[in-house]
């Protein structure tokens, strides 16, 4: 057989689809990049999760929590009887001092553990919106000094809003457990109890400090203004009422005493806004649900309604997971397990019961 010419043999070869090969290569490269990106994202999330677990047990979180509690107590109690401005200026100075310490602890925690320690919540948008509105008002204000630093009698300018935003962020980062909330509540209620005791001494004429205004008619405690003291009493009443509903034992007794003390002092101060705050707290308490033993029992019974695996026979040895995590049986009234269904019969299947599996097969 004679060989074909080179030109004819080249024409008879199947065409090489370079476009298809190029598309396959591009697809494989894009798939590789996507898989690497997915792996990197998964590693980053895993590292952030491990960092969050480490932050939960870290000393920096405890320091940040106690700084926030100390600042809240200082805002209630700090005053300077010998100063030209005895109440607002000392509170502002104490707040700024704690602000720098809290900002340093917060920055250290963010650098050390990353942004994963900041919880994601819709309330952050509202706080940022308030800060942006206050900053815009300071830019277009007629008196820039008052807009930024506030009036000398109140010190409620842009710097105060920044201070409160830092406190808000620190509390959201530091509070992770119920015990952390209890620390902040105890600090607030203890400072409030001291302020109420001082207000009671003022109403009885036993104030050890001399003031220009007579505090016996309307005591102002450590706030310098009866209206401000009345507003704080409404907040104190709401916190004490919440603890009286949620707590049991001696803690409930102390919270009930705080509720009564707040009501008595509110009647002495006679601020109309206090009535609004007390009414709002009572309405919120009407919709609060306290956890009881019966509710816990019902929840435990409902958790047993989920399908569970069949228990091993008496001749089998329990597995390691069964040894480590025993399950507590709920009361009989809440058992929800139904009898197991019979398997469908097939042609040629035997109706005799199968012998129990050996321990070796159960372990495998």
General description of the model:
The protein is built from 14 helices and no strands. Helix 8 crosses helix 9 (226-246). The longest helix is centred in the first third of the chain and has 39 residues, at 18-56. It is globular, with a radius of gyration of 34 Å. With 364 residues, it is mainly alpha-helical. It has a domain at 177-288. It starts with 5 loop residues before the first helix and ends with a helix.
Task: Tell me what portion of residues adopts beta-strand conformation.
Answer: under 5%
Low-confidence stretches: 6-13, 306-342, 344-353, 358-364
If you compute it from the alpha carbons, what radius of gyration comes out, rounded to the nearest whole angstrom?
34 Å
Number of strands: 0
Which class do the helix and strand fractions yield? mainly alpha
Largest sheet properties: none
- Large-scale geometry: globular
Q: Specify the number of helices.
A: 14
The proportion of residues forming helix, as a percent range, comes to 55-70%
N-to-C SSE series? HHHHHHHHHHHHHH
Please give the alpha-carbon distance between the first and last residues: 68 Å
Mean pLDDT: 76
């Amino acid at each position: 057989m004679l060989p074909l010419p080179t030109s004819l043999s080249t024409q008879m070869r199947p065409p090489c689809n370079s476009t298809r090969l190029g598309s396959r290569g591009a697809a494989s490269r894009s798939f590789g990049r996507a898989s690497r990106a997915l792996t990197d994202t998964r590693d980053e999330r895993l590292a952030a999760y491990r960092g969050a677990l480490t932050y939960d047990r870290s000393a920096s979180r405890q320091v940040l929590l106690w700084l926030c509690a100390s600042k809240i107590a200082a805002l209630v109690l700090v005053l300077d009887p010998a100063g030209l401005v005895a109440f607002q200026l000392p509170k502002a100075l104490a707040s700024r001092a704690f602000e720098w310490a809290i900002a340093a602890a917060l920055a250290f925690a963010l650098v050390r553990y990353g942004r994963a320690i900041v919880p994601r919540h819709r309330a952050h948008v509202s706080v940022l919106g308030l800060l942006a509105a206050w900053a815009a008002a300071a830019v277009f204000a007629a008196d820039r000094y008052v807009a930024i630093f506030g009036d000398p009698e109140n010190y409620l300018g842009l710097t105060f809003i920044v201070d409160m935003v830092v406190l808000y962020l620190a509390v959201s980062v530091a509070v992770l457990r119920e015990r952390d909330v209890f620390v902040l509540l105890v600090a607030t209620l203890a400072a409030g109890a001291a302020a109420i005791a001082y207000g009671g001494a003022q109403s009885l004429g036993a104030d050890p400090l001399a003031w220009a205004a007579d505090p016996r008619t309307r005591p102002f405690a450590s706030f310098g203004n009866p209206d401000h003291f009345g507003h704080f009493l409404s907040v104190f009443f709401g916190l004490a009422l919440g603890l009286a509903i949620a707590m049991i034992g001696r803690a409930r007794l102390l919270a009930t005493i705080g509720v009564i003390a707040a009501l008595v002092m509110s009647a002495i101060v006679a601020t109309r806004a206090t009535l609004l705050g007390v009414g709002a707290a009572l309405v919120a308490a009407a919709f609060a649900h306290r956890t009881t033993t019966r509710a816990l029992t019902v929840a435990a019974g409902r958790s047993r309604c989920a399908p569970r695996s069949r228990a091993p026979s008496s001749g089998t040895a329990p597995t390691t997971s069964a040894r480590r995590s025993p399950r507590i049986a709920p009361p009989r009234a809440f058992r929800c397990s139904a009898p197991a269904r019979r398997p469908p019969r097939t042609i040629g299947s035997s109706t005799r019961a199968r012998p129990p599996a050996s321990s070796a097969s159960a372990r495998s």
